[in-house]
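Might you be able to check the backbone structure tokens below? Thank you kindly.
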Amino acid sequence: MSEIITEYRNENTKDIDLLSTIDVVRKINEEDRLVAGAVYAESTNIAHAIDIISKQFLAGGRLFYFGAGTSGRLGVLDASECPPTFGVDRDMVQGIIAGGESALRVAAEGVEDNFDNGFKDASVLTSQDVCVVISASGNPKYLLGVLAKAEEKGCKTIAITCNHKATILEEVGLGICVEVGPEVIAGSSRMKAGTAQKMILNMLTTGAMIKIGKTYENYMIDLMPTNEKLKDRAVRIVAELANVAHSDALKVLLECNWSVKIAVLVLKCNISQEYAKDLLKKNHGVLRLALSEYFIPEK
């Protein structure tokens, strides 16, 4: 039997090819239910990772995900969703997949075994950045190359894996190991392992963005309203937070170039756009701090 946990055979699904379609679905779902608990067990390490990332963000650093195959695609996906959700620059969170952009759509064989390419791809890192390597097995030479360059750059490093024997865990500052158990189909780590990785990546970016003030309560107040759905969301957020009619929220949003935070300050505090902008600038763009300063001014 392989020593790599992600390659173990699942005793609960040995007869899956004999089951009815509905029982196949139920069997997969039974295994998927184990993922959330396994992720929860790593809550402390995930929280530590969020604190590391948010601290580096506040210092002007960036977050980089590196991975091969499914893990690489999940990193690219999470990174690509940050700008529209949180209104951040595209270079603040970046995903790099072994084999380059073509590997996003077509499997690139052997790229995870190339140490030199990982070392080269990680040349983008600086000492202010956070490097997160993602791998179910945790053994790709590509990621070892990434980590070697990250160490050379003096970069913070985090690993996400589903194997406690993963080589990458020995090379990083912080390891997040979520052992989800054998897959429904042996070795198909795009399933439970992939689901666990997606959950963790969601937590890392969402948690870090919350910590640096990209949300107010549970609203994404830095969203980029680039389509009708997002514009409608912006109107609803401003109307709710400022306690005004949707029509008034829309009017002020149009005047404020669709900035939710400025519109909320203008309406809630009955101040000018210029004053609202100054309040935000003074409080590093954090709406809660800006509101607190207005309603409880510094003495």
Observations:
- The mean pLDDT is 93.
- The two ends are 69 Å apart (CA to CA).
- The chain has eleven helices and five strands.
